[in-house]
Design goal:
Helix content is about 15%, strand content about 20%. The chain is α/β, with parallel strands linked by helices. The longest helix has 17 residues.
Length: about 625
């Protein structure tokens, strides 16, 4: 969660007995694992599964960073999670899950810290769940995961912090490699993903919470250094899907903050803006979900601070409805709203929230944000699902808040102004039923490292060269003249490859016609298609060719990119190599070869792409 700015508490109403709770409704049936189709998350039957989530925090820490971590006085807002999901000292876990169902949730974002994994100190103080006392924090986390999934909830694991403490701000947990190495973080993720592999209702891995600037450095998206969040997320997602659990969704949050929050100096909240020109392509298609956070007290260029770190920039709560909608669209929802592009994916607003005692500006912001989520049919996760209260006093953000005797105040209470917007949000199912298959486009970019997304190809299929390869259920359809870019798709032919591993072609041995006179041509053998290529600098090194599962022999044509773009007028796939000329076959074609020249002034760049027609889908093909 972003650093909270204290809000003056309103006068507490007179204590009242909580009404007897009705039995919670059963969760709708769904079938794991989850995957994506275009902008939607779907279950194993292809039915839309909209994440209506709550954040159940505590295991990642509630300590505020001052004094003793075991002192109740030094827990955020006086809420002590005891290094476990919040509320287990006040009510039985089964009661919390029943309340989640009553709230209309179908999924839970469950934060953890890297420290939690190896913490051997026994948890104490969970008086309402005595069987959990004495367990290690990870073992309590296990029990929470098991209880949630047994009750039918989908669980998304969230790496919230490095150390077990309250987030956020400049707290030593700003990046995935704050206070630890990237390798340690990757190993921790592989451990956590594998730990729950046999539990199909653990559906996602939210890789890191609110990546942001530390005292000295900004995170970035694509610079190739130790602070490159795009590269780190790529590594983690691929590691999880190959070594730990191929069924998980991979949630990638945008950069939450960069720059110095000082008037006159550059600062920004980029969120998902960079994804338009550098999207993530995982080794397994249909597993990527992007995420972003919004709070009224923060802003597009406002850190959310009061006093030190506060600037004159507008907060989200200061924006008009039209301006708020424009900002949320430009920094987040465009990824889901724009179809048929390499960046098109579901967007999960995995944190947003407001206090019951919020002022008028915060209330207006929350109502507008709910309207936006409904209008754009976005997945969501409210922060926090659970909180504490004493006669309705205290931190009043939680959807359900428990007192020491187990009495609850809930967002649906008659005196809670949030009840109306919350009902609107949870009742809005949006798109329902079966989601049709849509064509997929995936971007490759090998500027700083190999962009090998094939699991079938050898890891180093062209030794010493920079390699680009498509996921195994896609084919290469576009290349760039410089910039080490490529575009993959499954349009017109899903899962195109047969079993043999792809192979590199670095000669003209398979050229059947002079389709680029005067140029060196690397063409795939008969019956094969390009699934990647490699470069040394910008000079073409080899074509990667895969055997097709159907006969290939369509008519061919040459596309040139040496003087400009040669791409479909529709713009399908999107700009996968901004600032460079590109050649891209049509969606009913496949790339069979590429050509280059090392003549003076040419430099060996990919100057031409040889495209051939795919078989007509109505034409019978050999098995």
């Amino acid at each position: 969660m972003a650093l909270l700015v204290p809000v003056p508490a309103a006068a507490a109403p007179a204590p009242r007995a909580a009404p007897e709770a009705s039995a919670p409704a059963a969760l709708a049936a769904w079938k794991a694992p989850l995957s994506t189709r275009g902008r939607y998350i779907v279950d194993a039957d292809g039915t839309r599964f909209k994440l209506k989530s709550g954040n159940w925090h505590g295991a990642s820490g509630t300590w505020d960073g001052s004094g003793s971590a075991d002192d109740p006085a030094h827990q955020h807002a006086g809420e002590d999670g005891h290094r476990a999901p919040l509320g287990l000292d006040r009510v039985p876990m089964s009661r919390i899950l029943d309340d989640f169902r009553r709230l209309g949730l179908n999924s839970v974002r469950l934060p953890f810290s890297d420290e939690m994994i190896g913490d051997t100190r026994p948890v104490t103080g969970l008086t309402a769940n005595p069987r959990l006392d004495g367990l290690r924090p990870l073992e309590v986390f296990d029990r929470a995961v098991e209880a949630l999934t047994d009750a039918g909830f989908a669980v998304v694991l969230n790496n919230h912090t490095t150390t077990t403490r309250w987030c956020c701000g400049v707290d030593g947990n700003e990046r995935w490699n704050s206070g630890q190495s990237t390798r340690k973080w990757l190993d921790d993720w592989a451990f956590m993903a594998a730990r729950y592999r046999t539990n199909p209702r653990v559906v996602g891995a939210d890789l890191r919470n609110e990546v942001r600037r530390d005292v000295l450095d900004d995170p970035n998206w694509g610079l190739g250094d130790a602070h490159d969040w795009a590269a780190a997320a790529q590594q983690a997602g691929d590691r999880i899907l190959t070594d730990a659990n191929p069924n998980l969704l991979i949630m990638v949050e945008g950069i939450n903050w960069a720059g110095l929050p000082v008037d006159g100096l550059w600062h920004d909240r980029p969120l998902l803006k960079p994804v338009a020109t550098l999207s993530t392509t995982l080794v397994r298609s249909h597993k990527l979900v992007y995420a972003a956070h919004f709070y009224g007290y923060t802003g597009p260029r406002h850190s959310g601070a009061s006093g030190i770190g506060e600037t004159s920039d507008a907060r989200y709560r200061d924006l008009s409805r039209a301006d708020l909608f424009a900002v949320m669209r430009d920094t987040a929802s465009y990824v889901a709203d724009t179809p048929d592009r390499h960046f098109t994916a579901p967007v999960w607003i995995s944190e947003f929230g407001v206090a019951k005692d919020a002022d008028a500006a915060e209330r207006a912001w929350f109502a507008r944000t709910v309207d936006f989520l409904v209008d754009h049919d976005l997945d969501f996760a409210y922060w926090p699902a659970v909180g504490f209260q004493d006669d309705d006093r205290g931190n009043r953000w939680g959807l359900v808040r428990y007192d020491t005797a187990g009495g609850a105040r809930v967002v649906s209470d008659a005196d809670d102004w949030r009840a109306g917007p919350w009902r609107e949000l949870t009742a809005a199912d949006g798109r329902q039923g079966t989601v049709e298959q849509v064509r997929t486009w995936s971007m490759l970019k090998a500027t700083h490292a190999d962009a090998n997304r094939s699991l079938r190809a050898a890891a180093d299929w062209d030794n010493g060269a920079r390699k680009l390869s498509c996921p195994d259920d896609q084919r290469l359809i576009g290349v760039s003249r410089g910039g080490q870019g490529g575009l993959c798709t499954d349009a017109g032919l899903a899962d195109p490859a047969a079993a043999p591993a792809p192979g590199a072609v670095a000669s003209e041995a398979h050229v059947t016609a002079d389709w680029a006179r005067g140029y060196t041509k690397y063409q795939c053998p008969a019956g094969q298609f390009m699934s990647g290529y490699s470069v040394r600098g910008n000079r073409v090194s080899a074509a990667l060719c895969s055997t097709a599962r159907i006969p290939l022999a369509g008519a061919g044509r040459t596309l040139w990119d040496d003087r400009g773009d040669t791409r479909p007028a529709s713009g399908e796939g999107g700009d996968y190599a901004e600032g460079f000329f590109k050649a891209q076959c049509d969606a009913d074609e496949y790339a069979a070869g590429l050509a280059f020249s090392t003549a003076l002034g040419r430099g060996g760049t990919a100057d031409a792409l040889y495209c051939r027609k795919l078989p007509d889908p109505a034409t019978p093909t050999a098995p």
